[in-house]
Prior knowledge:
Distance between the termini: 24 Å
Order of helices and strands: EEEEEEEEEEEEEEEEEEEEEEEEEEH
Radius of gyration: 23 Å
Amino acid sequence: AWVNEGILHESEARTNQMIYSSNLAGPSGWTGGATAGTVTAGSPFGTYQTLSPNSSNTSLGPAQRYQIGKSITSGATYVGWALVKYSAGSGWFAVNMYDTGKANEQAYFDVQNGVVGYKQSLIIDHGMVDYGDGWWLCWASSNAASGSGGVAYEMPNGDGVQSCSAADVILIAGTQFEAGSTPSSYIPTTSASATRAAETLTVPAANLPYNSTNMSIQINGKITYADNNSTNTAKAWRWRINNSNLIQNRITTSGSKTGEPQFVQGSTSSGIDSVVGGENVYSPNTNVPFNFAGRYGSTFINGAHEGTLLTANTTPTALPDLSSTDLELGNIFMGTIGQFRMWSDDLGDVGITEAST
């Protein structure tokens, strides 16, 4: 069933280097032993085709369909993924992140039962995203060790094995190979790679209920992020003149943190003040639900997340004058924004706790 997740917002530009991303059969660019069927209508991406090994074998050569020779940067992180569905046989599918500077980089998925399987040591992370009706987006990430790479899609007949069976069949709807730590939304291609530009969302200052004494703000949605050991892994929203005069919400993964929510405000006269949640409130993944609500004042700041109230900080002495400044939604953000609300009032601790549930 269709679900309103809000607005999809991706602040990172991404390029799908695969060509003919939804047709692994006829066009040039795709090679390998696996047999791809006729493109047929009827998937979350519009079309799909069958994919199966062309013979049973003790190696995965007959079970591969791949594109290699893509331009990559040594040391950078890349993600390969495909949207697939079980059809017949064992139901196992593998994403192999090809790199001329490394050995196999395989991640395994049971698409019949929706279970993430084994990954080889060179894979940084892998996962599955449920698209409904048996369709799974299976992804894997790895660091490049050379200037040339790509991705292979394989149909092993078990978890972590290197053999295949001609009886195994999956349906495949779309493929992507992109720079990044986690998968972004699908960028269809034909005879050339395609790029989606970085997106920005701005709320004009004239539409914001600024109050120099107190305000309250709430935002929720789902976010996709990786642990990049950064103070600014994600920013759900930012209202800022400069680094000394701002109000913002962010998720931090610096040091031992895997997903710490932070509520921050600062002014030239008062300095920077914050309230933070637990270091591991969130875990890096795809489509991680979040709900932040904060109260910001000339003498306080406090926040809540998922109905959990934090401890107020009463050291601020002023709010920054942001009355003429536009607000940025999803300043650093890959995911969906479900709701953004703002009040020129102090909702109080009870109010922000309720707003964050």
